[in-house]
Amino acid sequence: MMNSYMDLLRNMGAQHDDSRFLLGIDGLSRSGKTTVVQQLRFALEKEDRPFQIFHLDDFIVERARRYYTGSEEWHEYFHLQWDVDWLSNHFFKKLKRVEQVTLPFYDGAKDTHEKRTIPLPKEGLIIIEGVFLQREEWKHFFDKIIYLDCPRETRFNRESNETKKNRSKFENRYWKAEDYYINRYHPAESADIMITS
Fold it and tell me: How many Cβ atoms are within 10 Å of 51's Cβ, its own excluded?
C-alpha cells in the first residue's frame, strides 16, 4: 500500500521539492479519511519526505456555538461546526507562506481551546483531512483534493453501538448536512481523485 500512495502523490504532482503542496483528504464521516492519512504518514516517513498533517475536527468551535442555536441541526453542523471565515483567513490562507501557524485546538472534554503553534516544512506536503473541504470558502486553497466515497449505511455501521442508538441525530444533523454538501458541491465529481472506500 505504501508504494501505491507514493505513486499516487507523484502522479498528482505532490512531490515537488521546491514548494509546499496542499493536499485535501475529503470525505463524509467514517469514510476512512483517518486511515488514509495514517497510511500517507507512514509512506512519507519511510521516504523521509517533509510533511505536516492537520485534522479539521481539531478546530471545531465550542458547543454553545454549534448546538441549540435556533437553526436547524443540519445547518448547525454544516455552517457553524467550524468558524469557516476564521479558518480561511488564519489557517488556509497562511499555509503556503508562513513558517508556522498558531491555531486553537479544541478539547472536547473541557469544551475549550488551547492555542498551539505548529511549524510548517519549508518545502513538502501539507495534508488536511476533514469533511466538507470542497465548500466554496476552502476548495481554492488546495493544490489537489482526494475524495473518499463510501455508502451511508457502511459508514453508519462503523460507528460504535452506543452512537448508533441515536439514529435520529444522524438523520436530522449529519445526514441532512451531508445531503446538502453532496447536492450543492458534488464532491465525488469535483475532487481531483475519487477513491471508493
Answer: 20
Cα gap 32→194, rounded to integer Å? 13
- Count Cβ atoms within 10 A of the Cβ of residue 158 and give its class: 0-12 exposed, 13-18 middle, 19 or more buried: middle
Return the amino acid letter for 127. I
> Reduced to 3 states, what is the DSSP secondary structure of residue 144?
strand
End-to-end CA distance of the chain: 14
Give me the helices (H) in 54-122, please: 73-75, 84-90
Distance of CA 28 to the CA centre of its chain: 9
Sign of CA dihedral 45, 51, 52, 57: negative
What secondary structure letter does DSSP report for 2? H
Give all strands (DSSP E) within the chain, no chain letters.
20-27, 51-55, 100-107, 112-119, 124-130, 144-149, 193-196
Residue 24, all three cell numbers: 485535501
Q: Is the pTM of this model over 0.70?
A: yes
The phi-psi region of residue 51 (left if phi > 0; otherwise alpha if psi is between -120 and 50; otherwise beta) is beta
d(CA 12, CA 9): 5
Convert the pLDDT of each residue in 108-158 to its tens digit: 999 999 999 999 999 999 999 999 999 999 999 999 999 999 999 999 999
Give the dihedral sign, CA 182/31/109/52.
negative
